[in-house]
Each structure stands twice: as C-alpha cells, then as structure tokens.
Backbone:
C-alpha cells in the first residue's frame, strides 16, 4: 500500500472533503459580486480564445485518433467521463420518439457530448447540432462534422431544419452576458425536453455575477461567470415545462467570495 493510500484510509471522510475543497479553491476561483457584465469583464484578465480553442481542438483530435478515451475543456482522459444524468435524459427522450432524436447542444464546443452519447447508445438515431462561436463552428465543420453531427453559429441557423426534440445546455448558461434571454427563447420554443447540466446554482434569491479564474494547467484565463439563483432558474421554465428531475454533479459544494453553490442540473418536459 502506498503512503497516499494509507493516509486516505486513515483520514475521516469529512476531512477529505474539506481538503478537496481547499485544493480546488487554489486552482479554480470565483471572485467578486459584480453589478453588471461589463464590470465583471473589466475585472477579469480576459482570455485568448484562439489558445482555448486550440487546446480543445487538440484534445478532441486525440480522441478521434484513439490516443485518448475522452476529453473535456481541453483535458484528455483515459476513460469516458459520462454525465450519467444527461445520458439518461437523452436516452429517455430517444425512447419517447418514433425516429431519430434531434438535439440542439448549446455551447457544445466540438461535439464532445455527441461523442459520449454515441458511445452510451451506439444504436440510437440522432441528429445533433452544436450551437457555438464561429471559430468552433469552422473547426467542427472541417474536422468533426458527419451525417449525424452538424455545427451552427446561431440558434436561428440551427432551427432552420425544424424544431429540436431536446435543448441541451451543459456548462454554458453561466458564460452568457444575458442567459435569461436564451432561457426565454428556449421556454417559448417547441422543444419537448430541456436538459441543463453543470450550471452553478445557489440558494440565494438573486443571481450573483463573479469572475472565474481557470487553473493555468488547463489554460490561463479569467472571465465573467454567473452563479444562478436556483429558484429563479427553475422559475424561468415554470410556465411551460414540468421539472422531471434535479441533480448535481459529484464535485460537491463550491465556494465563491459571495456564496456557496453547486454545479446543478435539471431535466424538464414541456407541458402538454
């Protein structure tokens, strides 16, 4: 037994969780309580979008070539990092359709969640459209697009082929200047299912705008990031959707300088 394993066995779980929070806080930070997106943007160091997309692209290419099993945020893994609640929600939506399920993946980078879904349900028919920034769309179309996977630079472009069955928002709402505007558009759409994942939510009655600082090992960056009021986020869909399930990822509680929060997820069905 290694010393690390021995210490892990001897350390109470409560202290292990506390240690993980301390270590995580040193690498990924959420600072401030800003009054506006512009204030938060000025309070951040910004980021080199070309460098970020390069790292994401290189990681996804390694997966495509078989040199890695999975990639997320430019980091490669030797095992697929499934978000099981998201996979279950997509499998559920597929089972409720008579043909291929049509997914709109907002902020889906180069199609990592599409790749995971095809690994999770290889026989499922799917028409998957990633809605992303233009440079990701260009890379996606050149290197990853296929008969099932497409890339679009806007919601309007993505909807030209018809309404979606699933609107998927994984770790994207918090990085939009006006996330509630997108929520309104989705709530007014004809999408029967909405799936939200890895979205910061607190118990506060208001949203909090912070600056997120990313560890240099991933990429040197800091940029505005929302921590949503769980109550407000759920209320954005109350008029047209029923909440099927709420969940959180396995990282536990996070701490910003303004509040504690978790990375939450929601599965919603449109009311008949």
Residues:
């Amino acid at each position: 037994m290694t010393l690390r394993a021995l210490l892990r066995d001897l350390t109470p779980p409560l202290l292990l969780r506390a240690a993980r929070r301390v270590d995580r806080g040193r690498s990924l930070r959420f600072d401030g309580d800003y009054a506006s997106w512009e204030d938060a943007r000025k309070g951040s160091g910004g980021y080199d979008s070309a460098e970020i997309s390069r790292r994401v692209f290189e990681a996804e290419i390694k997966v495509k070539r078989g040199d890695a099993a999975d990639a997320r945020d430019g980091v490669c893994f030797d095992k697929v990092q499934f978000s099981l609640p998201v996979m279950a929600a997509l499998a559920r939506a597929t089972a409720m359709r008579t043909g291929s399920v049509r997914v709109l993946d907002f902020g889906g980078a180069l199609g990592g969640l599409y790749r995971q879904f095809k690994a999770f349900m290889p026989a499922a028919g799917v028409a998957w459209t990633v809605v992303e920034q233009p440079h990701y769309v260009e890379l996606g179309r050149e290197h990853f697009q296929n008969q099932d996977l497409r890339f679009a630079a806007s919601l309007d472009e993505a909807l030209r082929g018809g309404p979606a069955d699933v609107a998927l928002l994984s770790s994207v709402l918090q990085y939009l200047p006006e996330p509630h505007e997108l929520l309104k558009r989705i709530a007014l759409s004809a999408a029967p299912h909405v799936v939200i994942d890895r979205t910061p939510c607190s118990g506060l009655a208001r949203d909090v705008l912070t600056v997120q600082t990313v560890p240099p090992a991933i990429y040197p960056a800091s940029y505005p990031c929302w921590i949503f009021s769980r109550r407000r986020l759920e209320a954005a869909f109350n008029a047209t959707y029923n909440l099927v399930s709420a969940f959180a990822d396995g990282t536990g509680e996070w701490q910003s300088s303004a509040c504690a929060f978790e990375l939450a997820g929601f599965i919603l069905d449109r009311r008949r």
Summary: Residues 49-65 form the longest helix (17 residues).
